[in-house]
Amino acid sequence: MSRLSVLVVEDEDAIREMLAMVLEQSGFEASQCADAEVANLILQERMPDLIVLDWMLPGISGIEWARRLKKDQFYREIPIILLTARGEEEDKVRGLEIGADDYMTKPFSPKELVARIRAVLRRTGKIQDLAQITLGDMILDSEQHRLTIGDKQLDVSPTEFRLMQFFMTHPDKVYSRTQLLDQVWGRSVYIEERTVDVHIRRLRKILAEYGREELVQTVRGFGYRFSLIS
Questions:
Q1: Sheet of strand 146-149: strand arrangement
Q2: Distances from the Cα of 119 to the Cα of 50, 76, 79, 81, 216, angstroms
Q3: Which residue from 2, 137, 64, 196 is spatially nearest to 53, judged by alpha carbons?
Q4: Which burial class, exposed, middle or buried, applies to 25 when counting CB atoms under 10 A from its CB (0-12, 13-18, 19+)?
Q5: What digits encode the pLDDT tens for the residues 141-187?
Q6: Which of 9, 126, 194, 215 makes the best surface tag, with the fewest CB within 10 Å?
Q7: CA angle, corner 39, sides to 35 and 42, nearest 5?
């Protein structure tokens, strides 16, 4: 299945690298940087599902960067968890007042942070779809690794299952082959773009057995779209 992405913005190398490792081990896709300037560049490339943000950063502080994000209509919906050595009540209130979704004081338990990340993602509706996705008469159950149309179970490979999971959670949007590679295979894996075409053809062939080959549409010059509307 496609992994939810977390951006860690933390200037202490050891903490940042430890958090990225823990997040990867917990099933997330983690990216990391040490300051807000680089974080802005990362956001322009790809929008994360959540940001873990240190309060005190070189240059623009974490709290100031968070305030700017929450005022920007393009980024304001990204959940933010603040990390800080500050423990005073007024600082916690200040962080939450600017729109942060949660707050953790250093030192903290990595396991607790992962639990808080999952809790925030549930509240914002990003995790609820991972267990079971329903679209029309199609149901994808990631826990049982089962994909059904009506009362019939489809025989799909793990890769085609992940493709369907991504498509069913992102219907009616066009994605390039590169974007699909990043989302379904992950950035750490080197695979040629034509591999996407191979799996799309296989998926269409399977869907065709149920009269649904039109669900995966080619958008010439751009990529692919999954839509119930042909």
A1: 132-135, 138-141, 146-149, 152-153
A2: 11, 18, 11, 11, 32
A3: 64
A4: exposed
A5: 877 788 999 889 999 998 899 899 888 878 888 889 888 888 788 76
A6: 194
A7: 150
